[in-house]
Amino acid sequence: MRRMDLAIPGTPKGTAWWDELPALPNSPGAYRWFYADVTAGEYSAVFIFMVGSLFSPRYSVGARRGALPLEHCAVNFALYHRSTRRRWVLSEYPRAAVQVQQEGRVLHIGRSVLEYGLDGTVRMEVDERCAPFGGEVRARLVLEPQAAAAEEVQLVPELPHFWRVLAPRAKARLEVFSEGVASEGIGYHDSNHGAELLGARLPGWHWARVHGPEETVVDYHLPGGVAPLRVTAGVLGTKAERRPLLAEARDTRLTGWGLRVPAQLYAGNQAVGEPRLLESSPFYARVEARRDGLDVMGEVADFRRFHSPLIRWMAHFRTRVERPA
Known about the structure:
The protein is mainly β and about 325 residues long. It is built from three helices and 24 strands. The chain has one domain (about 15-320).
């Protein structure tokens, strides 16, 4: 695979983003997560490695008392077949470790690993149990980026929350050994990080990425009249920009939990279709739509809701917690 020459701002010239893991957070309330999704035939899957887990009720409470993000790391994996969930993993750990190897840089959380290879490949391997008390899950995703990373962007001016699309389009191979799944398709990879708890000042967002035959477009919508962000990746390169607000808001609908989600998912101004709910909770929804060669995956999050005592209590039932040894 051709090695793309795109440096991280502030690193020596010629240093590509995969030559080192982005810095991990080390202050109370801070977080960083590494997200990837894949569409492979009738399957889709999501992998997330989190340091300072946004899904952790323990971190939600503990961060206000000085708890550190490395004390609340997590691995999330979900497998879907024809938009129906087949497996769900959310495991929380009290530590993570970074290892420098000859082949690349590796983040370890429990038995699961995220590796940035020196040839540009991204490998995520999950070796887990379904939450909270389910069976074993072993899965692997390998991404070979086909478009350059975007520049890092600040989600909201003056707030310490940042987003960077690292691999907007990638050749992907998904293997779920415990399910007998092996399929190739198209993948996506990004990273978010911030210096304070989500929901403290940034209440939430919704975003969606659209894979088309030749181009990927990612739209990130933010509350409070903040202009949305767009990343476009295709034959003309990768571009991140802030877009003007729509003159008219697009329609939404309420989930059974009362969370407002888009009524339609779009590729530009073209409606792809009504989103199918892959995940639905009081504070978070994951959605998907496919039509005529277009594939959309997106999320809606209301982090203010998550910090309520009732919803934090409910979150315990979707999480497996590994206690300190």
